[in-house]
Every structure is written in C-alpha cells, then in structure tokens.
Amino acid sequence: MVSLPAPVALARLVHSLTPVGASSPVYEPKWDGYRILYSAGKFYSRNGTNLTPLFPDLAPVLTARLPADLVLDAEAVGWDPVKGRLDFAGLQARMTAGRRLRAVVERRPAQLVAFDVLAAGGEDLRGRPLRERRKVLEQVLSGIAPPVVLCQQTTDIVLAREWFRVWTAGGLEGLVIKDAGGTYPTREGQRVWWKVKAKATLDMLAIGYTGSPAAPSSLVLAFPGARDDTGPTHHRRVDDRADQGRRQITDPASASDRRQLPAHLRLGYRPADHRHSHRALPSRGRSRCLSQDRGTTARRTLTPGPSRPRPR
After folding, report:
1. Is the CB of residue 202 less than 8 Å from the CB of residue 299?
2. Active-site residue 30, yes or no?
3. In a structure prediction context, what are the per-residue pLDDT tens digits for the chain, which is 312 residues long?
4. Nearest to 219 by CA among 200, 241, 239, 242
5. Catalytic pick from 30, 42, 178, 197?
C-alpha cells in the first residue's frame, strides 16, 4: 500500500514532442492547476502539504465515489465559463479565503483530473508500466461523472499536435509526454516524464518606458493600430519580470455547466469538433524578446522616436 504524502513523478522541460528516452511515447494535456496526490478523502500537494481543507467541495464527493485504497496522481482545476478558460486564479483564491472559503468554493468550484494511479485494490502499482496503470485507472474511473475527470491520453502524435494547437487557447499549459513502458518513481525528484509548454507571441508597440533606455525596467505597450471610442488603444504597462497578457490572448469558448469542463476538454473529444477564433495582430518594426514565463512571450517593437519617450 502507498501511504501519503509520497514522491511524485516530475517532468523535464523539452521543446520536442519526440524527446530522447521516450521509446513508446504517450501524450496528455498539461493542466494549469494544483498537482494533487489523492486518497481516502485527503489531498496532498507535490511537496507533501495537506491541502484537504481547501477542497470541501471535492472531498465528500470523492470519498463517496472512490475506493478508500485508491491513490491517484491528478490535477485540481477550475473552469471559468465566462472567460472560457481554466480558472487558476479561482484555485489560488482558496488559499487566502479564510472564513470566506465556502463562498469562494460555491462561486468557483473545482474538479479533479486524474492521470495516473499509484495504488488500487490494496496493491502498489508504481512498479508496473504506465500502460498497465492506465488500464487500471480507466477501469476504476469507468462511469465516474464530474467532479472526477479521467485525463485524455493518446499515442497519436498528429492528434497530440492538434491538442497542443487548440487546447492551449483554453488555458492548458501544453503537453506532458510519458513512456508507456515507464514505471512510477518511488524516490523524490525523479524526472521520468517530459513536458512541452505553449508560447504565445504578442507584437506590440513600445510607446514609453521607465528606467534607462539601454535597459528599461518596464514598458508602456499598445496594440498597433487598435482604437477605442475615445481614441487610440488603451496602454498596458509590462514589467520585464512579469508574465502579462497570458489570459487575454484568445476569444472565450463556451461552457454550459460551470461545474464541468466543457466538452472539448473532456475525454473523447477530437479537435475537429471545436473551433477557436483568434484576433490577428499586425507586426511592425524590429522586435526582441521582452519576457518569457509560463507560456507567454511578449515582444517590444522598437520604433523611431525621441531618446527619452515618456508614457502618454
């Protein structure tokens, strides 16, 4: 039997969907949520912190539906039906909610997306290959309805590329790649998986800055050519150390039930069934990378002007 907290499998960042070492690769979405080890109504973070008090909406449901000896590796996620995106901010709000936790949970409910199983039926499964653990996971979660969700998985690299292209618009961070023959680690810090993270580029005009011209500490940026009812587009100040605009770069998808992931993020969906529209941004001038973190690369476009431009 596996007792919690326990070591979790980690992923190494790569830039290819065919990493060296993955002899039989399988692909899964990389969720933007809290990594969770779950068993018998208890939730633990990847670092061993007991997060059970933060999930009063999930604990009783999972306790009633899942066997007590089941140990899952999963991600706790939320979905914002208004923005059509994964709601990571909603999960973070639980951390500081205090006595308002129940109200936060009711407004921004969570789900548990399970992608691996460490133990079931009284057996420690970590020494068995992923393909066998996956069969056990599918069997255990067969017929289970949200808020428990079985994570999608495919061996088809063409479908994986389409997932990467379409699903990252809904807030997914990218893809996780695993070897179907790989076992689950029993020691801390073992990177036995791989991850590819999505990046989005915003080409914008730099119309002002703070700090020195050679090394500005922040920029005032504007979308090229965009206008609103009062005139030129709104300006946005971007700090070099921050990840700005990651959650505003796509049009929202729809979700009919805020307690469920929309159809295109659930098992069995094929990307041809869903469409996202994207606003094309014109690019002008010379650009260089401004910031890159958690999936977004902002660019500053250098345009002719005085040596000390000031924010408008």
Report:
1. yes
2. yes
3. 798 999 999 999 999 999 998 999 999 999 999 999 999 999 999 999 999 999 999 999 999 999 999 999 999 998 777 777 788 998 999 999 999 999 999 888 899 999 999 999 999 999 999 999 999 999 999 988 888 999 999 999 999 999 998 888 777 899 999 999 999 999 999 999 999 998 766 677 888 888 888 888 888 888 776 555 555 554 444 444 333 333 332 222 333 344 456 555 555 433 343 333 222 223 333 333 333 333 433 443 333 333 333 334
4. 239
5. 30
- Among 242, 243, 244, 264, residue whose Cα is nearest residue 252: 264
Tens digit of pLDDT for each residue in 259-284?
456 555 555 433 343 333 222 223 33
Map out the domains of the chain with their CATH numbers. 10-197 (3.30.470.30), 200-253+263-302 (no CATH)
DSSP result, the chain? -PPSS----EEEE-S-SS-TT-SSEEEEEE-SSEEEEEETTEEE-TTS-B-GGG-TTTHHHHHHHS-TT-EEEEEEEEEETTTTEE-HHHHHHHHT-GGGHHHHHHHS-EEEEEEEEEEETTEE-TTS-HHHHHHHHHHHTTTPPTTEEEPP-BS-HHHHHHHHHHHGGGT--EEEEEETTPPPP-STT-EEEEEEE--EEEEEEEEEEEE-SSSEEEEEEE-TT-EETTEEPPPEEEETTS--SGGGSSPPPP-S-TTS--GGGSTT--GGG-----------SEEEEEEEETTEEEEEEE----SS----
